Amino acid sequence: MAAVEAKRSPHFVLFPFLAHGHVPVFLRLAGLLRALRPGLEVTLVSTPRLLGSLTLPPASPPVRLHALPFVPADHGLPPGADSLADVQIHQFITFFTASESLRPAFEKFVSGIGSPVCIVADAFFGWTAEVARARGASHAVFLPGGAFGNAVFFSVWEHLPHALTAADEFPLPDFPDVVLHRTQIPRFILSATGADPWTAFFRRVIASCRKTDALLVNTVRELEPSGLDMLRRSFGVQPWPIGPVLAEPTAPSSDSRDDASIIRWLDTHPPRSVLYISFGSQNSISADQMMELALGLEASGRPFLWALRPPLGFDAKDVFRPEWLPAGFEERTARANVGLLARGWAPQMRILSHPSTGAFLSHCGWNSVLESLSRGVPLIGWPLGAEQFFNANLAVEWGVCVELARGNLESSAVESRAVVEAERTVMGDTAKGDEMRRVVAAIARTMEAAWEAPGGSAAESLEGFLRCVEP
């Protein structure tokens, strides 16, 4: 007599893109899956160097790690460039296409798993949907970004709407209610012809993602109903909003300023008085923009904490040069205790959680947006690339962001007086500032409630997704 087979959750294979903002979010997703299904088998797949840089939270059984061989130099990339942060902007497309070389090793790994499998991959690895079909596995694309930002970003790559008109403003062909301005189009899309490597890569990504069984989205159902509907219409599958999925705070690297000294500096300032500035780990503003921003910060007189990276066009690992800032800027602001420059890494979540932090001047990468709003900190937006322009647009619509500038092209000017005005609007005792703080506090409560049990919308979505992929 045949035994009745017990219901068993599949082995989850998580495959984040090779970028510092993506891997920790996938690792956090592993923890959330385990919280709903204790003992679930989860393997995180990446390159040896990226996996070696991870600090895994304690878990039983532990999250497994599987390394796929990747030799950047074989693709014309610098040795050791396992992450997008390791290359300069002009090398991004080379890195993107090189990442597709991971497919044979990934196929071999998945084929060797004996139990049922569910692959959860980054959109950049949308080709894993084809691997899943060949294996008879379930598949989901996990978007670490937001619903609206991703829907618009994919639409722009698919249709290149700015190339269809000479006008500065134009609607999206598939979402005509969304009207964009030419200044919101990232630099590599502006120069795209439809026959270039960038367009070819992203159209491959979009076509592959449309073969998935489900979309997991790092957003909150109550905040992005229209963006989620846009994704559903674009990809033809149900999106599961499971956000906010916030990465665990990371430890500082050995050459970073001691984060304890940063917190001690914040401790010396009154509540909501400090402007935190960071443009993320993969981009920077130009040298001229950096100079003008510094002049504006000094002119405002408000305390600021700036996570500095070399300007656009320079290696992120270069030593920061004094000539990129006004003469004596660091010394003057430090002497007056109004400025602190943190070169490279900064403990962002600890900074945003500190009561003296009053606003965040950000590139509006989605992780940064979620982290800021979850801590009740309003934004001053300066989007630089990818879907950041559309994230900033959404945050402005929500009433939690004032946009200071767009992009880091030579034509993207910012004046010091605009910096002063943006700070005054967001951080000052103004009607606009008061309203922004009220709205961002409400959004923070909504984000917290999404993972509260029972009945939180994110917890319900992840449970619904699990039930769909369990045999």
TrEMBL record:
It is an enzyme of class 2 (transferase). It comes from the Eukaryota. PROSITE patterns: UDPGT. Keywords: Glycosyltransferase, Transferase. CDD domains: GT1_Gtf-like. Pfam families: UDPGT. One of its GO terms (molecular function) is UDP-glucosyltransferase activity. Its EC number is 2.4.1.-. PANTHER family: GLYCOSYLTRANSFERASE. Belongs to the UDP-glycosyltransferase family. This is Glycosyltransferase.
